[in-house]
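Collaborator request log, item 7. Partner lab (contact: R.S.) asked for a structural prediction of DNA-directed RNA polymerase I subunit rpa49 to inform their binding assays.
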Amino acid sequence: MSDRKRKRSPEKAERPHNPAKKVAVAVLPESDGWCPAVASTPGISLPSSIPLTPYKRSTSDSRNLPPGHTSLPSYELLLQSSAHPNLDYLAREAPTGSADSLLAHYTAIYDPSTGSLQITPAHKVILRSTLRSEAAEIRDQVEASRAAAAARQSNFAQRQALSSEFGTKKARKAIASLTENAIASGRGRATSPGGTAIKQDASSAAVLDSMASSTNAMPDKAALQAAVDDAKPRPRANLAATTPADVYTLDGLIGADMRSIAVLDWQAAAARNDDVRTPSRFVSRRLAAVAQGGDVGKLKALRYVLLLLTFLAALKPGRGGGRRLPPRDELEKKTSAAGALLDGIRRRFADGGEMSKWHVDYLITHLAALSLVIDNFSSDTYDLKEDLRLENKQMSQYFHELGCRMSAPTEKEKQLLKLSKAEAAAHRMARLKLPLDFPKQRVLAAKRR
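Returned to partner:
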């Protein structure tokens, strides 16, 4: 056996070193121009069609580089792109003090024809992506336009308008007197109570002219009503709609979060005729019918209603009827929501970690509008009232703010809902019909002395 064992071959002769083949290494000096960037994309895949726009900001490079190493130019590199329809891409350098900020990165280019190797310092950036909320952008634009419109009205004009609509009889009489004098000043003369003309000096004419301009800027009753409606905590209604289905749509109520709502488990359970139990009375009573109906949009709306109800139940009491948000890990555990979907709800219905009474009402009116869409714009408010633990009067007021007409169930609806006469007394039907029936601003009568 030892004879058949392959003997060790003699040591191969090492390849002779070619002294003529040398590499000329050149380290590029520090420059104020752009340097290459080494980008890492943890957890994401950047499409090759997305262009990144570079920006730079002057800064001081405080890293301790080894002797002989070329330092980076004194600026911070930023790469940004909004070319994607739904995502924003942003690449930043590692923050000062982190482990990556203490490392120096270089790029090298080798030219085989000349045997030269050029080395230059490079910026190390980390690329992240964030979901751009279309509904938040639209809401910000609407709020900015409202703020600009409100700034155009002077404080004096607003006070005059409020006094003319909601002031006492004495205040309205005083404003009417100012208007009459302003009209008279427009003809060049003011009149006394007896009807005789009074000559005006320059100062009187200037004062009356200013009053005339102020009264011209006063909004009418319709404009005041529109301003009051815009400030109310409720979803924006399409006043130009020709059918109830166009007044409140899922795109307006949920927006871009529709893509993050998963309903495959509910669809599979409906196909197996399984009994799915949820902590919501409203959702549980409608889940099977909506899932078997095949309308994925309504099924996602039902899952969003369940998420909003669990989100509201997870909040802690706050000041003035508001709520406080618990820590994020506790909120994710109680709502069982994904990160992007939960962030969308926080942006829409919360102000940081707080929710004022206005934000709570804004969330409840969204729940009421979603129930109208799910129930084909004729909804029994009893289930949602029980989930929110509200009285009939409070729940009816929320639906009335959406333009609904409230009434008792009809005989046909009693049979459909299987309600006895005693049970039907606790149920109210919200019907969304055109024209919409919004609450009107009440004008208080002046107190008599």
